[in-house]
Every structure is written in structure tokens, then in C-alpha cells.
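Support request from a user on the community tier.

User writes: "When I paste my C-alpha cells into the form, the page sometimes reloads and wipes my input. The last time it worked, I copied everything first. Here is what I submitted, just in case something in the input itself triggers the reload:"
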């Protein structure tokens, strides 16, 4: 690390000396990502490192948690196979992640996880040494693990201990306000940052490499529901020309179902908004199906084992004439176990046929999956704002600028409600016409079929009845009961 001063002119034309630091690798941010990057680089021989951060106790990783904060990685337990490509596919299917990044993260996930274990983060293990995993939402494998509500806090504490052990310098109490860039070919790359301390004094840090680990988009939007401590500096990178992938996108719609029945229905959105829902469904629906298939298979195995036991109990009950009579009566009335099994088999076959039919129409990637609105009639955000406000605002930007100054949400909302547009709600659309939809093969059994399937039981009952009658008759003859 080398320190110097350069003279720069400020906005009023005055010359000031700004301190400049030269360093091989600059890490901006000290959440789990920044700390881990610094520790890994130092372990791989990078000696000239500097971490600049608002504070070691700042950021999401060390401050927030949830009921059971989940660490997600390649599955390291159980008998189900997993592979980086499969994990990357699951990440990618979420719809917000760059595919290459998904594969890199998946490929290194086990290694990064075990590194944390080596640093002393107490992830749970079973007596054989397997890292206990569980399935999270839409996760087809047991890739998640946790050490409780503050998993990332414990990770940070272990990493901070390691940063101190390795002697990596940390500058706390500073904010990166600008990224320095140098031209490289047709584009440019980061070559340092300008940081400001609490008094506003500036300092430049020039570096060969910059690790930009400033957290999520918490500080990016005017209105945010993130906790205050989640600042972030993505905007700094965007202003310097960085390209972003998968930033949460804003969208609005006038009516959206609650997804309680598993299907989202949307009305009254702009074309861009509809497209966000469409892309989300295209990524998430196949995962939902895969999840249901996995879950269905284990449930079926359990129910089949119960059915085998119930079948054995039913056969045993034939030892008694009343048991045999009940079984025959159930078979004739089609309330017996065999009838239930036949119905369930038909339901499973129908599910396969129905899903195949949906897939055949490429339905999950189409607008028809989430709305009956004709894509030809979709409006742009600006058109929606103009029409809904009765022409008061011409563009959504104009509306946003005005809305930012309003303190009451009813005022902001009310102006958009001036004009109701057709297609804003489910009303007014004709019912779906689905002539090609496969129907459930409902095959109610006949009395004759019931009699046929219970013929063996009826024969057995007859033999039992004759035998009992014969034994009763003998007893009556042999012993005078008068
Ligand atoms: C309630 C909640 C529950 C969560 N649950 C989970 C979960 O179960 N599983 C999961 O994987 N993820 C979960 N997350 C997300 C996860 O915690 C974060 O994605 C992760 O901690 C981000 O780590 P990071 O290092 O990228 O950023 P952060 O931990 O936010 O670190 C960013 C660092 O950069 C610093 N910084 C920011 N701006 C500047 C600047 N301009 N100059 C200098 N320094 C700056 C900050 O002070 C901080 O030190 C949850 C998040 C929340 C809020």
C-alpha cells in the first residue's frame, strides 16, 4: 500500500490536496461477501489488500436474520444426487440470475461452505459427519442448512476473526461515493474508488482490482421496505457504467389473485408488467411441477404401504363371516380399498395427461397462463398513466415526480383511479373455451362389475355360512338343548 496526495480543483475552482492510496486489491463493503472475498484473496497470496466499509457492524449480513436464516449450497447429505449444473439450473429458473453467475456460484458453493465450516461456523452435522440439509421453497433437493435466525451474523463474526488473524487492513466509517474507471478496449473497468469520511472529506483509492461487495439494492430506490441499515451502493456502480442483472423490477397491476389455489391471475397491468409475470411463471412453474412430482412420489410410497397393510387386514377379516360380508358389501357399493386405489391411479394418470396437454401448448411461457387479456391490447406504462389519470399526466415519470411530493398515499393512488379501464378485473371476460382439454375419465362401476369382483368373497362367505350351519346343526343334534 502506498500513500500520496494529488491536487484537484473543487467545484469553485479552488485547488485542494486529496490523499490517494495505491493498493493491489480494494474490497468495498464488509458483509459476508466482502469479508469472504478478502479472506480468500489473502489466503491465495494477495498481500496488498484493503477493505473500505461503512463499518464492520453495518450491512445486512451482520444485522438481519429471519426465523431460520438459510444457507443454500450444493446438497451435502442424503441419498439424492446433486451437481453444480442442477443447482445452477434451480438458481437460473428463479428468473433473476445471470446463467454464468449461477454456474459459478453453484460450482464453488460446496467449497465456500466448507471454508466457513473450517473457520468455525457451527453448521449442524449428523453423527456420521453429513451436513444436515432441508428443502426450502421450490428446492427439489436438501440444499439448505442453517444455524438459526442469525446464520449470516455468525458467518461474519468468523470472517472478521479471520480478517484480523490475517492482518488485512480495514478502513471503517467511510462511504464509497464514486468508482474510478480506466478505459479498456471499447469499454472501461473499475480501477479504484473515491471515498468520503463522516466529515465529508474525500480520498481516492486506486487499485488493480476492485471487489464491489456493497450488498443488495436496499439503497437504490426512493421508497424501500428494507431496514435502514441496508444501505448499498449499486447506484454508484450504475453511474459508472456498470450493467446490472436481475435487479428487482417495479411493476403495477390493477387486479392480481392471491395465488392461494397455486395460480396467479393478473389484470390491468402494462405490457412490461405482464411480461414480468410471464417470465416469472415460465421459470417457476416447471420447478413447482418437479417439486410436486418429488413430493407426490414419496407420499405415494407411504400411502401404498398403508394400503398394503389395510389390504392384509381386509383379507384377515374374511376369517369371520361378518368381516367377509362387510368386504363384499363394500365391493358391491364400490367403497372398498380396491375401488379407492383404482380411483387414485386414474387421478394420477389424468394429472400426467393434463400436464402434458398444458406443456404441449407451451402454456407456462405464454400470457394466456396468467391473464385473458389479449396481448394485442397491452398498454405501455406511460399510456396506462395517461389514460388512468384522464390525461393529467402524460408519462409515468411525470406522475412519479408528482407522486414523490405527496405525503398521503390516497392522493397518489386516487389520481390513478380517475378513469377505469376495461380489462382491469376478471369481470367482463368471457369464460374460457377449452374444447381440447382432456377430461377426467370418470368410470362409475356397475352393480354387475361389483358382484363380479366380489365373487370370490361371496363364495368364501357361502362356504363359511354352510360350515357354521353344519356345525350348529351337529351341535343341536348331539346336545339336547331343551
Ligand atoms: C430479513 C432478511 C432475511 C434474510 N434471509 C436470508 C436467508 O435465509 N438466506 C439467504 O441466503 N439470504 C438471506 N437474506 C439475504 C442476505 O442476508 C443478504 O443477501 C446478504 O447478507 C448480503 O451480503 P452482502 O455481503 O452482499 O451485503 P451486506 O451484508 O449488506 O454488506 C454490504 C456492506 O457494504 C457496506 N456498504 C454499503 N454501501 C457502501 C458504500 N457506499 N461504501 C462503503 N461501504 C458500503 C455496508 O456497510 C456493508 O458492510 C436475508 C435478508 C434479510 C434482510
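"...and here is what came back when it finally went through:"
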Amino acid at each position: 500500500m502506498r500513500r500520496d496526495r494529488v491536487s484537484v480543483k473543487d467545484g469553485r475552482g479552488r485547488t485542494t490536496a486529496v490523499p490517494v492510496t495505491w493498493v493491489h486489491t480494494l474490497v468495498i463493503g464488509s458483509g459476508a461477501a466482502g469479508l469472504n472475498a478478502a479472506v480468500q484473496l489473502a489466503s491465495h497470496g494477495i498481500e496488498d489488500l484493503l477493505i473500505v466499509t461503512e463499518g464492520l457492524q453495518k450491512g445486512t449480513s451482520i444485522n438481519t436474520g429471519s426465523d431460520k436464516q438459510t444457507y443454500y449450497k450444493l446438497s451435502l447429505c442424503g441419498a439424492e444426487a446433486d451437481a453444480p449444473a442442477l443447482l445452477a439450473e434451480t438458481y437460473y429458473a428463479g428468473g433473476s440470475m445471470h446463467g454464468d453467475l449461477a454456474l459459478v456460484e453453484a460450482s464453488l458453493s460446496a467449497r465456500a461452505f466448507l471454508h466457513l465450516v473450517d473457520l468455525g461456523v457451527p453448521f449442524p452435522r449428523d453423527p456420521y459427519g453429513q451436513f444436515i440439509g432441508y428443502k426450502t421453497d421450490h428446492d427439489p433437493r436438501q440444499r439448505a442448512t442453517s444455524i438459526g435466525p442469525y446464520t449470516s451474523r455468525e458467518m461474519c463474526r468468523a470472517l472478521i476473526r479471520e480478517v484480523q488473524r490475517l492482518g488485512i487492513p480495514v478502513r471503517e466509517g467511510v462511504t464509497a461515493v464514486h468508482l474510478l474507471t480506466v478505459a479498456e478496449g471499447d469499454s472501461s473497468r473499475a480501477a479504484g474508488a473515491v471515498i468520503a469520511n463522516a466529515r465529508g472529506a474525500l480520498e481516492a483509492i486506486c487499485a488493480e482490482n476492485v471487489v464491489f461487495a456493497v450488498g443488495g439494492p436496499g439503497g437504490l430506490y426512493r421508497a424501500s421496505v428494507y431496514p435502514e441499515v441496508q444501505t448499498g451502493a449499486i447506484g454508484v456502480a450504475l453511474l459508472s457504467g456498470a450493467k446490472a442483472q436481475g435487479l428487482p423490477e417495479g411493476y403495477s397491476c390493477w387486479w392480481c389473485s392471491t395465488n392461494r389455489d397455486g395460480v396467479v391471475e393478473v389484470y390491468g397491468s402494462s405490457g412490461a408488467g405482464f411480461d414480468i409475470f410471464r417470465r416469472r411463471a415460465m421459470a417457476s412453474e416447471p420447478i413447482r411441477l418437479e417439486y410436486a412430482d418429488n413430493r407426490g412420489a414419496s407420499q405415494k410410497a407411504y400411502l401404498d404401504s398403508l394400503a398394503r397393510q389395510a389390504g392384509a387386514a381386509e383379507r384377515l377379516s374374511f376369517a369371520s363371516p361378518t368381516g367377509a360380508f362387510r368386504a363384499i358389501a363394500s365391493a358391491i357399493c364400490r367403497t372398498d380399498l380396491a375401488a379407492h386405489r383404482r380411483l387414485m391411479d386414474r387421478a394420477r394418470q389424468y394429472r400426467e395427461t393434463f400436464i402434458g396437454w398444458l406443456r404441449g401448448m407451451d402454456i407456462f411461457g405464454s400470457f394466456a397462463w396468467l391473464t385473458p387479456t389479449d396481448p394485442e391490447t397491452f398498454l405501455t406504462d406511460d399510456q396506462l398513466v395517461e389514460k388512468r389519470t384522464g390525461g393529467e399526466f402524460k408519462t409515468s415519470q411525470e406522475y412519479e415526480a408528482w407522486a414523490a411530493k405527496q405525503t398521503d398515499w390516497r392522493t397518489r393512488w386516487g389520481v390513478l383511479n380517475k378513469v377505469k379501464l376495461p380489462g382491469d378485473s376478471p369481470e367482463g371476460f368471457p369464460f374460457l373455451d377449452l374444447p381440447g382439454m382432456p377430461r377426467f375419465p370418470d368410470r362409475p362401476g356397475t352393480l354387475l362389475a361389483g358382484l363380479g369382483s366380489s365373487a370370490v368373497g361371496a363364495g368364501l362367505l357361502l362356504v363359511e355360512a354352510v360350515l357354521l350351519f353344519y356345525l350348529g346343526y351337529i351341535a343341536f343334534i348331539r346336545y339336547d338343548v331343551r
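Agent notes: The reload is a front-end session timeout and is unrelated to the input. The chain has a mean pLDDT of 87. The first strand starts at residue 2 and ends at 9. Escalated to web team.
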